[in-house]
Amino acid sequence: MTTLDTFSATLLDGTLQPLDHYQGQVVLVVNVASNCGFTSQYQGLQALYEKFQARGFTVLGFPCNQFGGQEPGDANDIRQFCDTRYRITFPMFDKIDVNGVNAHPLFQWLKSSRPGVLGSEAIKWNFTKFLVGRDGRVVARYAPTTAPSDLEKDINAALEG
Questions:
Q1: Per-residue model confidence as pLDDT tens digits over 9-41
Q2: What is the CATH classification number for the domain harbouring 109?
Q3: Which residues, at least 6 apart from 126, have a Cβ–Cβ distance to it below 8 Å?
Q4: What residues make up the domain containing 10?
Q5: Residues annotated as catalytic (active site), given as ranges
Q6: pLDDT over threshold 80, residue 118
Q7: pTM
């Protein structure tokens, strides 16, 4: 059975990170962008990370430039933006595609595990969120318009479950 632990992804610093590093944790996977109308959600994602990290929760940020070219920078630009604007301390990965033939295998799996509205697997915009339980399976998918603070109840339930 495929779980989060099956995949690897490259961190912003170029290090290949096997995602089994997060085994046993509740994980929120988010495709992010620096120049999006939802970019201020970085603040809420960081708040969730700080609030629940000690209980075995993490956020994994995956920059993506597929939606309106809203993540044009390279890894250094993204890191600098996240550090200076939002003081992001959760793991940030290198820029990837989330849709199409070059979609990262992690996002292919996430989308097929939890399709969106009307069964569509495609990610519609930046800041689509996937909650993964301690067992490595996808628990829920959230629209870009869902504020990070609105996920607290589900994160709590996943941490307790």
A1: 999 999 999 999 999 999 999 999 998 888 899
A2: 3.40.30.10
A3: 31, 32, 33, 36, 38, 39, 64, 67, 70, 71, 144
A4: 4-160
A5: 36
A6: no
A7: 0.95
